[in-house]
């Protein structure tokens, strides 16, 4: 439909990966009724491609206590050449970065302090751009089995500390040298696009229902929400193609779109019987794109505009009873199953 966003880096398929821990569920299951902590039904890794606004991969895990790094093996199976992977420092491991490099991909990932390296070139100021100074020496990282990789280590000195108090961040990257340190840092800042993608999933598509206690059910519900989010991405792509990228990105409210779908769907299915929709199932994608663009021509963006935000006041935190840490629903179910099987 021609509704893609402007490319982040020409010639690369940008992929952002991040973890999402499902919301704690209610204690409806027998195994959870005596538990006092928050019951975690699972977590997942999600791969998001910003130019199209699509979630293209999901890697679910039933164990709510599982580390995100334990799922990286499944992610690596999808790594291909000319792909640019972006992630936070929790995904910065020698094995993960080394395998991306070996398979012909690139990455822009914040360095974890646990990754050993050797500096190969002197640290010299490279660029000056708000909000901080930059430098990018070359470093050598050796994998556990001895393979060596030479990458760039972009150092950014921040004028203002992050919420964790950091004034320096280091970004490991393997993109070509002609891509400046400034552009590398800017692209890493845009990684928060994936964080904001989770917000409408939870708020408007009810991606995490706290009544789903069984891990498989909770993860299945979350994956259905990812499919719904991709349908929304197709709608936004049609709107961008017709009305332009800037108005759709900055003025259109995802809440109003989701609300329009939720309030109109039931009446629409009554007025237009289900067999009437069969024509769209077998329609070629090119023909369906023409239909969507024609429908987008009739959309009034004014009716879907975001409401202006008012400044928020500081929240008062009430002193309360300290609860125990979160619990993994999958582990409790396995423990209960083992108890019932014991004679």
Question: What is the strand and helix layout of this fold?
Answer:
Elements: E1 13-21, E2 39-40, E3 43-49, E4 54-61, H1 72-76, E5 83-87, H2 94-102, E6 106-110, E7 118-119, E8 125-129, E9 132-135, E10 138-142, E11 148-158, E12 168-173, H3 181-189, H4 192-203, H5 215-243, H6 245-251, H7 254-271, H8 278-281, H9 285-297, E13 327-328, H10 329-341
Parallel strand pairs: 1-5, 2-13, 5-6
Antiparallel strand pairs: 1-3, 3-4, 6-12, 7-10, 8-9, 9-11, 10-11, 11-12
Helix pairs in contact: 5-6, 5-9
Percent helix, as a range, is 25-40%
What's the N-to-C terminus distance?
63 Å
Number of domains: 2
Order of SSEs: EEEEHEHEEEEEEEHHHHHHHEH
Instruction: Please report which band the strand proportion falls in: under 5%, 5-15%, 15-25%, 25-35%, 35-45% or over 45%.
Output: 15-25%
What class do helices, strands and sheet pairing give?
A: alpha+beta
Number of strands: 13
Shape: globular
> Mean pLDDT, rounded to whole units?
84
How many helices? The count is 10
List unreliable stretches of 5+ residues: none
What is the makeup of the main sheet? 11 strands, mixed
In short:
This protein has helices at 72-76, 94-102, 181-189, 192-203, 215-243, 245-251, 254-271, 278-281, 285-297, 329-341, and strands at residues 13-21, 39-40, 43-49, 54-61, 83-87, 106-110, 118-119, 125-129, 132-135, 138-142, 148-158, 168-173, 327-328. The protein is α+β, with helices and mostly antiparallel strands. α5 packs across α6 (245-251) and α5 (215-243) crosses α9.
